[in-house]
Amino acid sequence: MNRNVLLAWVMPMVAAAPLAWSQAGPANPRPDAMEATAPVPPATYESPFNGYRTFSEEKVAPWKDTNDTVGRVGGWRAYAKEAAPPKPAAGPAPAAVTQPGPAGHDGHKR
After folding, report:
1. For the chain, first and last CA: distance in Å?
2. What is the rounded CA–CA span in Å between residue 82 and residue 77?
3. Which of 10, 26, 67, 89 is 20–30 Å from 75 (CA)?
4. What does the pLDDT read at residue 35?
């Protein structure tokens, strides 16, 4: 190996070695767990039920009135139309894109 190439690799490592040992430790080192007099942060507790709302029964309409309303609106088909995505605008139909099947399944009928 060329001596210059070797120096180009070794010199940065030799120069950086003292810097690695001279780095300061963490600002707040963790206390030794085996030391009985080590300071311990106070324990805190938060109940999992904080923010819990009790059950409250909702007022509902009589079932006959609800059935009559559904009938006036148009039944389940009206609700299905509301939930369906909007139909695309009329125009030329896009060309069908055929994708090859997964490898190894060429013998199956499509």
Report:
1. 62
2. 9
3. 89
4. 87
